Prior knowledge:
Layout: E1 3-12, E2 15-25, E3 30-34, H1 41-48, E4 56-61, E5 64-65, H2 70-75, E6 77-80, H3 92-103, H4 107-116, H5 132-144, E7 150-154, H6 162-176, E8 180-184, H7 188-194, E9 197-202, E10 205-211, H8 212-216, H9 222-229
Parallel strand pairs: 3-8, 3-9, 6-7, 7-8
Antiparallel strand pairs: 1-2, 1-4, 4-5, 9-10
Amino acid sequence: MSLDIQNLTKKFGNQTALNNINISISDTEIIGLLGPNGAGKSTLMKSIVGALKIEEGAIIFNGKNIVEHEIECKRRMGFLPENNPLYPEMYVKEYLAFVADIHQVSKERIDEVIELVGITPEKSKKISQLSKGYKQRVGLAQAILHAPDLLILDEPTNGLDPNQILEIRNVIRQIGQEKTVILSTHIMQEVEALCSRVILIHEGNIIQDSPVREFKGKYESLEEAFANYTHS
Ligand code: ADP
């Protein structure tokens, strides 16, 4: 897996959401994407997965420009958007079969993923009947069903209770052993628990891109480091 983001700029009207972003990723690792609300995290994630039009700069995934090789690149990426959009009226297994069909993935793989994300007891329920934690697992399941090389997760533990957070983190940690994961989060504990590298965005600019230990640097905690880097 390789991802190269080159001079990526994204503007909404006269507002610059991403300002000349450059990122290079080639390792199998879990990367924490940090930044205050409105920093540009979701815009960056949506740009990588091809959900937003690239207007300035380029994103090269596995050596291919994502605009020129859109379908091919999308086949190798998984995305869990913010707020985990699902079809509440569908049954879990029905929904995953629908997604599997889109990706032309075998029925056996559905069972494998159901097992991996720990939703076996819930697989026959309607999505609307699931707890938020289980819904999140279904969201994760759809993102990894086609065994992507790169997994992008926008605030995957947002709104979960402490037990659900630990459970989802365990699933992400397991996935991160084999795949590259980029996840956005506001929880510094999550960064310490999961990530090896941190990319900090502030007002559309990359302020830091370093191993977690370096990011923490001279500060007492990641929270303190974050506050200092983003203090304007
Ligand atoms: P984050 O995910 O870090 O909270 P976003 O990427 O969602 O930040 O937003 C970055 C900036 O771009 C914000 O100021 C936001 O209001 C703006 N923005 C995001 N999406 C749109 C859009 N579709 N139209 C207009 N402005 C947008």
